[in-house]
Amino acid sequence: MVVSRRVHRRLVLRRKFQVLRALTCSKSVRKSNIIMDAFNYIKQLKLMIEAMKKQYANLINKVPKEVKVEKIENGFLVRVTSEKGKDILVSVLEVFEEMGLNVVHARVSCTHSFCMEAIIETDQVETLEVKEVTQAISKALEKKIGVRAAPFDTM
């Protein structure tokens, strides 16, 4: 009974080393070398993960900062993209309120960056220009995150 347990354990351990050898593409047969190859393989994987995290962080930081405003029937379509910051949505909505604009529909996402698309209406469509709305939103973004938003071509 004791001998069969030892043999069974030895077989299980041998299978595990074979799997480990296959995973790490180790050419060695010795257990100590297989373990060292596995250790080096894990180290390489950790380095690859760190490189991917840095690359991901760089991509997130390169989110374009832009404000796009288009004139529609009796209001404007506003698209804002910028990096995440505290109370950005609040400051943009305050700008709308100060200008006498009413938000009819809004879609906001703050997963990786701040993205907002809103349809706003006003009674002063003829007097209010796209450029004025764009500049007001850009100033609000500058105050909150300290980054100048690139105005997008207006239609």
Automatic annotation (TrEMBL):
* GO MF annotation: an example: DNA-binding transcription factor activity
- Location (main, coarse): nucleus
Show the SUPFAM superfamilies listed in the entry.
Answer: HLH, helix-loop-helix DNA-binding domain (SSF47459)
**Key word Nucleus present in the record?**
yes
Give compartment(s): Nucleus
Residue ranges of the ACT domain? Answer: 77-155
The residues forming a coiled coil are none
Q: Which InterPro entries match?
A: ACT_dom, bHLH-TF_ACT-like_plant, HLH_DNA-bd_sf, TF_AMS/ICE1/BHLH6-like
GO CC entries: nucleus
Q: Which domain of life is it from?
A: Eukaryota
What keywords were assigned to this record?
Nucleus, Transcription, Transcription regulation
One Pfam family named in its UniProt record: bHLH-TF_ACT-like_plant
Name of the protein this chain belongs to: ACT domain-containing protein
**Which species expresses this protein natively?**
Stephania japonica
